[in-house]
Design a protein that fits this description.
Formate dehydrogenase/DMSO reductase fold; cell inner membrane; mainly alpha; 9 helices
Length: 287
Amino acid sequence: MSALVAVRFVHFCVVLLVFGTLLFRPLLLGEPRQQARMRQWLDPLLCLLAGIGLITAVAWLMLTTADMTGNWQSALQGDMVMKVLTQTFFGKAWFVHLFASLVLLMCLRIPLRLPAWLPMGLSTVQLATLAPVGHAAMLSGLPGVLLIFNQLVHLLCVAGWMGALLLLIFVQARPAGHDLRGTLLRFSRYGLILVAGIIVTGLINVRALTGTLWPTPLTGGFALVLAVKASLVTCMLLLAVFNRAALNNQRIALSTLRQTVLVEWLCGLAAIAAVSLLGTLSPVPLV
């Protein structure tokens, strides 16, 4: 179980960061000259993240096979892995996920300048196929479809927020030629939309999965980890509000902004770790 949680955490991180970075690079770095300069630093990182994403996607499949069969040896048996991949709902979604992960890595490795929509589209497919492989698949019929769509919107918002924060960290580390305050203000406008999406879709997920506004018992595993996640997201929100207010009033040094953006990003990584654990816990008490 701990191995699966660790793999889920790493995989969620890289998929979310790649999508969010690809999405916000043209939005935050408007000038082509700025984008070209930043590509020299970001492209190798994105390629590395995509490689880690493919490796952890395969590991996730193998560990899920072992979990489904109750036998760790089955993770190394090709016939059992293929049976999970072709005969389960998870496997069918994961087949598309693995294909998108492989092609995305190939696109990022090709030295030719490919159209921007190609890696962005592949990253979107990679992210979208994460939505139906967790708790969102617990419901069937129309409610299940709606819950998967809600989870997809939740993931899109989280990915956008985390990827944009990573971009800001890079811009602050290499500030030459960049209007830092202007870039941060542009992100803060998008950030308000992303935060609203995360909160609303998160509450919908909890209500749909538990039947209540908050799971009980409050000290239970699922409720406790969810509380930790909610606390971390709240910290990120407060930091974002603080940064926006300080930027509007121009009362904060850029060095302080670097620290608060980094802390906000680290809180996001911790929240993803909580989500990785939540996906392995039952949202309702087992009788």
